[in-house]
Amino acid sequence: MLMIGIVLGFIALGYFCWLLFALAVYALPFFAGVTAGLAAYHSGSGPIGAIAVGLIAGVVTLVVGQIAFAAVRSPVMRATIAPLFAAPAAVAGYHATLGLAHIGAPSQDRCEILAVIGAIVVGGTAWARMTVLAPPNVGRRVMAGSTPQPFASASRDG
User: Fold this and answer.
1) What pLDDT, in 10s, does the model give residues 66-86?
2) Cα 2 to Cα 60: distance, rounded to the nearest angstrom
3) 15, 33, 41, 125: which one has the fewest Cβ atoms less than 10 Å from its Cβ?
4) What is the tally of structural domains in the chain?
């Protein structure tokens, strides 16, 4: 029975880490949605209105950020947009790693070191997931009115 608990604990820890990395890019939209929802609730809109405002704000933040990152061709502008998504993910990774480190690490210094490493890794993962949205033909220019021919040099004979 003890072995089953240990194995399931490791599986749960692995699932939690996978979930943290998979959802890291959504930290900024989540933060924006929660902030807008709380602001709406405190202004008197009620719980249902606050949830609606929070969902709308989170979705708009995610869609606008992804469209802006995919549409902008300048590396400088992309380097400005990507940290907006990576910084909240790094903060979330820091706190998640710090909480997990307190379970197993005996000293506070080791916990802090592990938390900083976790923040760097989770922030880097969010940054990498944002760069996946970049179109593959960045930097190539196609003349107006012409269509790119991927197999232009291939002969028709086979």
Assistant:
1) 888 878 878 788 888 888 888
2) 47
3) 15
4) 1
CB 89 within 8 A of CB 126: yes
The residues, any chain, with a CB within 8 Å of residue 105's CB and separated by 6 or more, are 111, 114
Per-residue tokens: 119: 């923040």
| Host domain of residue 34 | 21-131
d(CA 100, CA 117): 13
Asked whether residue 100 is domain-assigned, the answer is yes
Residue 50 lies in a domain: yes
pLDDT digits (tens, 9 = 90+) for 83-132: 888 899 999 999 988 988 888 878 899 899 989 999 999 999 888 887 77
